[in-house]
C-alpha cells in the first residue's frame, strides 16, 4: 500500500498571516504520506528560497526533497516540489515546462519505493480555464512520451471549480480521481481545487481531506491524501 498526499502550503503562511514552516512540517507528519506533492513551496520573490529548508527536512522529518529545483535556493520549479521517504530511491526527475501567461510549471519523478517504481507528477495549474486545459494536455503528453512506463500519480492544485468540465474532463480520459472532498478554503472548505489522479494501474483504497486543527491554521488549503494499491 502506498500513501500519497498533495498540499498547497501557501509559502508557509497560515490563516493567521504568519509564516511558520514548522507548522507545515507538523501537518505533513500528521498525514505521514510516502510521497507528497507540494505547491507554493518556495517564496515568491527574489531568489525563490524554499520554505522547508534542507536542515528542517534532514533533522525533523522522514522525507527528502526531489532535486528538481532549477534555482540554487529553491526546492522545486515554480513552487512545485516533491517529497519522498528517505528510504526511497529517486530514479529520475525533471521539471516540466508548461504553456502559460503567468509563471507555471510541473515536476515529475520516478521513485523506487516498497511498492516498486512509481511515477509522480506535481502541478499547480493556471487561474484561466483555457490555459489550464493547455497545461493539462502538456502534462499528459509529457507523461505519454516517456519511453519507460510506470504506475502514475498526478497531484496538485488544479484551480478548477467546476466538476466534470475543463481540465478535469481532460484528465478523466486517462486517470481516475480520488474522491477526497473540498479542501479550500481551510477555514470553511467548499472548493475541490486540490486533486489526486491515478493511472489505471492503481486502485484507490481510501482517501480524504486532512482537517486537523493545525492544518486549518497552517495554510489556506487543507492537504488531501489517498492510499493506493496495485490494481
**Number of helical regions:** 5
Topology pattern, helix = H, strand = E: EHEHEEEEEHEHEEEHE
CATH top level assignment = Alpha Beta
Q: Output the strand order for the largest sheet.
A: 3-4-2-1-12-11
Mean of residue pLDDT? 94
Distance between the termini: 11 Å
- Uncertain stretches: none
CATH architecture heading? 4-Layer Sandwich
Largest sheet geometry? 6 strands, mixed
Net shape: globular
How many strands in all?
Answer: 12
What does this structure look like?
The structure is a single chain. The chain is an alpha+beta fold and 231 residues long. The chain has one domain: 4-Layer Sandwich (Deoxyribonuclease I, Chain A). It has 5 helices and 12 strands. The strands form 2 sheets. It has a 6-stranded mixed β-sheet. Strands 5-6-7-8-10-9 form a 6-stranded mixed β-sheet, covered by helices on one side. Strand 7, helix 3 (129-145) and strand 8 (152-157) form a beta-alpha-beta unit. Helix 3 (129-145) runs parallel beside helix 4 (166-172). The radius of gyration is 16 Å and the shape is globular. The model has no long low-confidence stretch (mean pLDDT 94).
Question: Outline of this structure?
Answer:
The chain is built from five helices and twelve strands.
Topology:
Blueprint: E1 2-8, H1 21-31, E2 35-39, H2 54-60, E3 63-65, E4 81-85, E5 89-97, E6 105-113, E7 116-124, H3 129-145, E8 152-157, H4 166-172, E9 176-177, E10 194-198, E11 202-209, H5 213-218, E12 224-230
Parallel strand pairs: 1-2, 7-8
Antiparallel strand pairs: 1-12, 2-4, 3-4, 5-6, 6-7, 8-10, 9-10, 11-12
Helix pairs in contact: 3-4
Amino acid at each position: 500500500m502506498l500513501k500519497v498526499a498533495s498540499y498547497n502550503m501557501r509559502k508557509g503562511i497560515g490563516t493567521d498571516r504568519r509564516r511558520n514552516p514548522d507548522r507545515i512540517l507538523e501537518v505533513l507528519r500528521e498525514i505521514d504520506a510516502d510521497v507528497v506533492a507540494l505547491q507554493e513551496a518556495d517564496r515568491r520573490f527574489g531568489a525563490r528560497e524554499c520554505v522547508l529548508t534542507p536542515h528542517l527536512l534532514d533533522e525533523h522529518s522522514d522525507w527528502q526533497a526531489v532535486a528538481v529545483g532549477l534555482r540554487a535556493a529553491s526546492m522545486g520549479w515554480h513552487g512545485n516540489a516533491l517529497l519522498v521517504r528517505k528510504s526511497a530511491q529517486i530514479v529520475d526527475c525533471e521539471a516540466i515546462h508548461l504553456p502559460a501567461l503567468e509563471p507555471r510549471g510541473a515536476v515529475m519523478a520516478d521513485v523506487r519505493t516498497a511498492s516498486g517504481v512509481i511515477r509522480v507528477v506535481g502541478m499547480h495549474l493556471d487561474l484561466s480555464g483555457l490555459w489550464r486545459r493547455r497545461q493539462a494536455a502538456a502534462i499528459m503528453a509529457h507523461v505519454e512520451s516517456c519511453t519507460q512506463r510506470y504506475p502514475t500519480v498526478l497531484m496538485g492544485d488544479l484551480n478548477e471549480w467546476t466538476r466534470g468540465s475543463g481540465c478535469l474532463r481532460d484528465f478523466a480520459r486517462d486517470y481516475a480521481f480520488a474522491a477526497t472532498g473540498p479542501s479550500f478554503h481551510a477555514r470553511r472548505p467548499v472548493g475541490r481545487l486540490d486533486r489526486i489522479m491515478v493511472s489505471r494501474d492503481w486502485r484507490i483504497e481510501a482517501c480524504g481531506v486532512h482537517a486537523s486543527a493545525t492544518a486549518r491554521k497552517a495554510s489556506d488549503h487543507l492537504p488531501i491524501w489517498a492510499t493506493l494499491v496495485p490494481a
